[in-house]
Automatic annotation (TrEMBL):
GO terms for biological process: photosynthesis. Residues 29-171 form the PsbP C-terminal domain. It comes from the Eukaryota. The gene is LOC103704855. Gene3D superfamilies: Mog1/PsbP, alpha/beta/alpha sandwich (3.40.1000.10). This is PsbP domain-containing protein 4, chloroplastic isoform X2. It comes from Phoenix dactylifera (Date palm). One of its GO terms (cellular component) is photosystem II oxygen evolving complex. GO terms for molecular function: calcium ion binding.
Length: 172
């Protein structure tokens, strides 16, 4: 049964972005957001720059963005990458966390979980400060980082929804 007030976003197959020479198309992903969250244009001037594939935001609840980065930046893996091949959760957050929050993640990781959905492994992290939930996985030759962030007040008021958004991320 579909929860009222939530919708599922799926990356369109024909959406451009992140296609350098030798890149395979980005494998579509999905996530759920409450009504009121809207897609926001991505600027290459943003933190994360050209690797940010998508942004969504709600003035009341928070923001999210999806980073799609080449796996080869993190590990020497050819072909269909799996997050486990890049490293254990601790290694992965140490490698990409600074790109997401703009600083070293040491002492900021409150929790780490490993989940599996449809045979794909996802690493899930909660960091503070700043308040951010990160869901990471790998597919094709790319690392997918799904990031949900909020101000202190938004975090306090909407944590349950923010966590549900972060937990809903899937690469198809």
């Amino acid at each position: 049964m579909k929860k009222t007030g939530w919708r599922t976003y799926q990356r369109p197959d024909d959406k451009s972005g992140g296609h350098g020479v030798g890149w395979s198309p980005i494998i579509p992903y999905t996530f759920k957001v409450p009504d009121g969250w809207e897609e926001v244009p991505v600027s290459i001037a943003d933190l994360g720059g050209t690797e940010i594939d998508l942004r969504f935001a709600s003035s009341q609840e928070g923001r999210l963005f999806v980073v799609v980065a080449p796996v080869l930046r993190f590990a020497d893996i050819e072909g269909n990458a799996r997050i486990e091949l890049i490293g254990p959760p601790e290694t992965v957050i140490d490698a990409f966390g600074p790109e997401v929050i703009g600083e070293n993640v040491e002492g900021k990781v409150l929790s780490m979980e490993v989940a599996e959905h449809s045979g794909r492994t996802y690493y899930q992290y909660e960091l503070e400060p700043p308040h951010v939930l990160i869901t990471a996985t790998a597919a094709g030759n790319r690392l997918y980082l799904f990031n949900v962030t909020a101000s202190g007040l938004q975090w306090k008021r909407h944590y349950k929804d923010l966590k549900q958004i972060a937990d809903s991320f899937r690469v198809i």
